[in-house]
Every structure is written in structure tokens, then in C-alpha cells.
Please model this.
Amino acid sequence: MLQPESQVDLQFPRNTSNSPIMTALENIGETSGQGGNKSRLSLRQARKRTLNSDISPAPEPRTSHRFRTSSTGESDDRNKTPPTLRKMSLGRNTTTSSGRRTAGGSSQSSGITGGVADGATIGGRVTGVCPIANLGNTCFLNSVLYALRFLPGFTHDLHHLHMHLQAAGNQSDGTLDQRIQFLSELHSVFVSLGKEERNVSDNKRIPAFHPYDFLEALRVVNPMFEGNRQQDAHELLHCLLDQLCHLPQDLREGRPNGATNSDPTPVTQESDSSPEPKRLRRRSERIQAIEEDSSKKQAWTLLAKAIFSSCSPLRLVENKHWQNFFAVLRPSFKIPSRDQLSNTLLENIYQECLSNAKEAVASSQSVAVLLDGWTNIRNEGIINIMVTVPTPIFWKSISAGAESHTGEYFSQIIKSVVEEVGPMKVWGVCTDNAANMKKAWVVIREEFPHIQTYGCLAHTLHLMFTDIMKAKSIESVQKECTNLVKHIKSSQKLLAIFRKLQSEGNEAKTSLKLPVKTRWGSIIHCMQSIQENKHTLQKLAIDEEAKKGLEKSAKGTLLSEVFWDKIAGYLQLLKPVATAITMTEGDDQYLSIVMKVFHDLQSSFDEQLPNSPVLQSEESFPKEVVSKRREWLVQKVHLAANLLDPRYRGCHISDEEAVDAIELAYEVALRMPSIDEKKVLGEIAEFRAKEKLFSKPFIWQSVDQCSPTSWWNGMCSHTQLSKVATGILNLPPTSALVERSFSRHSHIHSSDRNCLSTDRAAKLVYVAHHLTLDEKLHRTSTPQPSTLADAPLSQKEKPSSSRCSSASSLKDKSSLQNYSSEDSEEDVGSEAGHSSGNDTDSD
Model:
């Protein structure tokens, strides 16, 4: 559609209003830039313009059947011919700019259009309209050229505008920008059409005109018309008028060469006298422009990914020092604005990550759903959901709004995720052990009987550790350690003396650590930091400068050997629990590890408790806590996973529990298509007894060299049992992966960035998770097996390498390495309690 008058700025400064070029531009705007009745010239105006013009009107089309008219019976067909064309087709005498009148409307000053009307004769022959050749799906181009050629006044103003721009270009060393070149080629098309119509021989058809140069110029100003695809004539007309309407703005601002504010140097073109053909020069310039645009988009995307993956604030691009850095690095590169970063670039990268996640889930045979709730900086309820394939993938983040976190509400969320992923793909749902989650389990089991619902191992171990620390003898030492560290770190003088003594000694330079409630097992890190600084702390207790600041109780504690014996004893007793918590929080553990953890902890307590500082009356308390939490967490799916793991083969479960494990495997096989459940039972028996296929020694030698799922898929893929085993073993033992996403969420949506919308913060967390995961998957380091401290395993029981990923960006990439010490320090259990602040990273 033609642009309305309000959208086309055709007003010029007074000092240039009388210039010929501005007058011609105003005429173009009057003809093609105004909508409604203003864009149509009346018959009288058309006739007046034709008579006063030095350009003759184009002939009425005769060769096209759409416009064909007959010379006889003209009165009957007058209503079929447009009045304007009928007026212009009359062979009237016209007046040239020099005042001479010519017959038949022929033009002596320009050849932009044809010279005679339909039905007129020159030398006894009938003239017509020059056809335009189809250059490959260019019907849209021909239609617009025909329409504009017969538009009253358009060719007249176009010719004068071209002459004025050409004169201005010659005064500016002959350089023309892309828009002027485009207009020049359009003018050349109409000139060539008129020449072909006048120069045709008698009784011969007018040869078709090939507008190659115009098509090339069009593709330069708008790459959308690249290639030979079918295009819309309306889009071309809009593009053409848009190019013409932007000329006044550029000329008024003194940019005749197409330079913009964002371009520090104007773009110049080679002289027409260059030996290189004009068409090849334009093609080279077009390719260069496309390559520069592609390079710019790629650079912007990489910069945005760097900012998002590092959780850096979006205001970084507004920092003058960063801007100066990029200006020195590449002066022509302009970094994206904050608005572009937080809208266009974020949305594009988010959609890319979302597509990869969906592709990974679609190509996976079995997945598990993990979810947990949290409260953000604004005290808004947030629920994060992850899907394991088995590599954990951030699926979505939901704002709870005014909804209460009830079992029914969580069950509705879980059901919606199951439907999105595919009910038959979901093998399990893992959450924390809260009462509302357990209520949601009941609803899910009724709706989807094949889905296993179970609790989080890391959360259970944390509760178990908290229960053990309630023993009076252990609790007293915990308070002593906490008060001692607080006392030293709260005094500047004591802390400075401690660091001075530490630098002078030969001990490891370990800082004193305080226990944190949201960091599970952090009391162990506190005790360990005290033990490693034993000699430094004892020197501090007898230092002359520290006497005034150090309390007598703290001094007595540091100089007491009983205190240090208790520290060593409790560390030896409790460290396996903290190590188990850290190990199970990783991304690379299997569900079979649950039974092994409880078995090894029970064995460790049986061995360490008799020699520990725990009171004799409390010796049975830690073992009772382990048994209680084991019974509270363990379900049949945990037993089946331990039974089907080739590293364990059920060595951590009792005979009664082995029966329950076989029963669950049988129930899973019943619900799987194309699986013979009876054959599965037979293969379980052969697997446990090491018979037939499982009697081969080399098969068991490969257990230490690959993951359990790789063992089943690689060594025993032809068995029916392998399908059941891999589905169960791929289930994650913990939902701590979701807890870690809350740490990233709190880092992104912090008190300094509390004006981020909930939706944008969720997208930033989603993108940061996927970019970080992609970086981990590309690491080439080989993961080391995870083991429980003070509970050595046999060579066949050592956990194997991390899981294999599948599909999309996760497919055919290296496995995740073990949970790093840096990740284990993350606040995996952070809760609400933030105060609002001023944000510098607004929406």
C-alpha cells in the first residue's frame, strides 16, 4: 500500500525548497507517497500535466490480452477502458519544454516512454507495448513496472528527478549511493522500453526487454529479493516507494552517498570508467554487504551468549570502557544496545536453546521429570522443572502467582509436563520429600501407573545428617566450633594476627569456614578448616598481641587436647555422610547408588562408632537414624536399579528386597510394547546367576570401562532385559539439580537486578543453564569415578564414567565430568529472605 502522507516527510529547509532536485522529490511524493484520493490525479490534471510535459505518455497496452482494445466498435468498449488511459492514449499534440508541438504525443527530449498511442501508425505499421521478459519467477517485477509506467505523472517526475540527481552526482565526483543507483536503473528500464517500441521494424514483433541491471540494483537495496523465489508484487511496490521516500531525508541531512550516522566513513563507489563491468562491481558490493551483515549478527550472538552464560548484567553493553574496548578492537563494529540484548538477542537464543531441548527429549527413549519450588527476591513463588535425557535439561520455569503450593497444584504441573514430553517417554518423577509432593505422587500414580515417583536422595541425606547432629555429644562440639570461628572472624585484630601467623607457618593456607544452613554438611567443612589450622590457632592462643582480644573460653578450647581429639573423631565419623551428600548432588549418578550409599553408611557407623567420642548411651542413635531414613526413602524402583546395575547385581539389598526388585522389573516389562515379560524374568535369573550370555568373563571385564547403561546397550543390547534395565538406571537419584538452578536464579534475579521481570529472569536462567551445559559437554577431560570416603569399594563396584547424552546439541558429545568442588559450594538449598533493592538492570 502507498504510505500515508503523515508517514512521508517531504518538507525541506527554506534554503533548498526552490532547488530543482527538491521540487522533483516533492512531485514524486505527491504522486506515490500520499494515500486516498490525494494519490489519484483527476482527468483534467492528467491532461494538463501531459500537455505541459516534455515527455510523451506511454502507449496504451495492445499486446496484452488484459488491456487489448479493438479499433472498431470503440463506443461499445469505452466503459471497459480506464478513463485515464483513454485520455492518455489519444494522439494529441503535446508541447515540449522548448515550446514546439509534436503530433501523436511523441517526445523529442526523452525516451523514457513510447511515442504513439494504440492504433496509431508510423510508416504503415501498428505499434504496441514492449514486453518484459521473465527472468525466473519475476512476474511480480514485470507487473509493478507495467503499473508504474502507466501511472499518470509518475514517469514524468521520475525522469526529472533522475536528471536532477544525475547533475548533483556529477558535481559530487560522480558518486551515487545505492538508492540513487536503484532509481537510475528504474529510469533506464523505462527509457529502454520506449526505445524498443520506436525502433522496431515493420511487421515485426517488439523483442522482449530483459531488466537484468534493475533486478541487480533491487537486490542490492533489499536482499529479500535474492534468488529466483516467487515474490509478492505488493512487497516490491512498497520497497520501491520506500526507497524513493527516503531520498529527501538523506539529501536533507547531507548524505548523498548513503552514509548513515552509524557509519563513520561514507561508502564510495568506483568510477564508471573502471574496467571492471558495472554488474560485477554491484554483485561484489552486494556480497560484501551481506557478509558484513552476517558477521555482525554472528558477533552479536556470540557476545550475547557470553553475557548470558556468565550471568553478567545486561548494562554491561552500556559501560563506556567496554564500548572503548570494542572500538579499539574493531572500530567498525557497533555493540548491540541494552534493549536489543534484552529483547531480540535474548529471545533468539532462548528459542534456539528451547529447540535444542525439545529435540533432545524427542530423541531420548526414556526421561525423568524433576521439579521443586522456591521464592525469589520479590517473594514470588517460582517452580523450576528439569528433564533428564539422562543429562539434565532445564525445561521451564513457572511463576506460581497466588497459587498455594499444595499437592493438587503440583500434580497439575507434573501432568502438564508429562503431556508435553510424552507420557510413554516419562519413566519417573523425582521431587523432595515434602508432604505436598508426596500427595502429588499419589495423583500421578493413579493417572500414569507406569511412572515411578520417589524422593530425593540428597535431601534425605541432609535430613539424616541434621538428625545425627542432634546427638548431645555431637551438638556440643558443633557449638564450640561455630563460636570459635565466629569469635576470630568478627575481630579485625584477631583475624589479622591469625593470617600473619598462618603465613609464617608451614600449614596449608586454609581459611576458617562458618557452617551455613543452606549448604548441606557445611559443619564438616567448618571442623575440617579448624583441624587444618590447628598449629596456627594454638599459636594464636598464646600470642601476646592476641591476649587482649581472645576470650578465655576460646583460649582454653584451643589449648585443650580433648577438643582436638573430639574434632578428629567426629570428622572420621561424619565425613562419609558429607561426602555422600556431595557425591549424590552431581549430574552423573545413577539410581542404583541409593542402596549402596545406605549400605556403606551403615557399615561405616558399625566400624567407627565404638571408637568415636560419641557417648556410649548415644552409640546406637546414628545407626537408628540411617535405618529410619532408609525406610522412609527407599522404594521398589531403588531396589530394581541396584539389582540391574552390573557393578552391584543387588549386593546391597536383602533377599526379600531382591524379590520386590524383580517384581517391579516384571511390572515395567508388562507395560512396555514388544517386550516379552516372561523372557525378561528368565534373563534376570541368568544375569544374577551369571549363566549363558552372562557367563562370559570378558562381558564382566567391561563393567569397569563404561557406564551401566552403556554396558546394557553395548554388550547385551539384544536381550529383552536391556530395555528395562536402561530405562530404570537412567532415572536420577536426586532432585538437587533443580536446587542448583535456584542458585543461578538468585544470582541473576538479585537485589541489584530486582526490576527484571519474572519472565525475563526465567529466560536468562534457562539460557544460562543450557549454555553452561553445552560448555561442559564439550570438555575433553575424562571424568574420574566417584567413591565414598572411608568406605572403599571393590574394583568391580567402582562407579563408572558419567552418563551419555543424547540428541540435538547433547547428542554424540563427551559426557559430563564429575560434580566439581566449585559446584558443590553452590547454595543448593537457598530460600526466600532477600530484601528488595534498587535495580540497575531494568526491563
About this structure: The chain has a mean pLDDT of 74. The two ends are 35 Å apart (CA to CA). Strands lie at 94-95, 101-102, 121-122, 125-126, 367-375, 381-388, 392-399, 426-430, 452-454.
